[in-house]
Amino acid sequence: MHEDIEKIYAKLVSLETELINLRQGYLVVNKRYSTALKSLQVLTVTSLEAARRAAVAAERAMVSARHCAQAAKAAAVASVIEVAESAAQAAAASAEAAIEAAAAASSSAAAAAAAVAEQAEESSIQASAQAAEATKRAAEAAAEAVKMSNLASESARIAQKGAK
Question: What is the pLDDT of residue 75?
């Protein structure tokens, strides 16, 4: 009987030691998880901000392309061919900038979506949705900038034909 009690006591000590080790392991894993979660939250917020800024850049490039198209059209009417060509080139550059901004917004939205895949938190889901919306805005602005660039190029071509 005394021997059985010692075996039980030894088993309890062994279980207690194992429980202490498990508790320490849990604390380490929990700390790492908390650190990873904070990093993902920062990534999500940063990705959202990048997508918003890229959308704004694309919209501004679209406005620039629109003004360039108007300048090219006015220059074509006034038979100022070099000005029309320069405005068309500027519109094309603005359209390229809008396309690059849209691509940046898309990359940011993808990063935000990746963060959401890692953590299913409401704030991350909202940030990912907002990044996707910013990407949509950037893509629409890029498409509009390309249209304006094409109009500017057409105005320059008309001016060249009129000069001949």
Answer: 73
Nearest alpha carbon to residue 133 among 54, 41, 46: 54
Q: What is the mean pLDDT of the chain?
A: 76
Q: Which residues of 124-138 are buried (b: 16+ CB within 10 A; e: fewer)?
A: bbebbebbbbbbbbb
- The span from the first CA to the last CA of the chain, in angstroms, equals 117
Structure tokens at 100: 């690059």
Percentage with pLDDT > 90 across the chain: 1
157 neighbors 81 (Cβ within 8 angstroms)? no
Distance CA 23, CA 80 (A): 80
pTM value surpassing 0.85: no
Which among 97, 81, 79 is positioned nearest to 148, based on CA atoms? 97
In whole angstroms, what is the distance from residue 79 CA to residue 45 CA?
A: 50
**Three-state DSSP state, 78:** coil
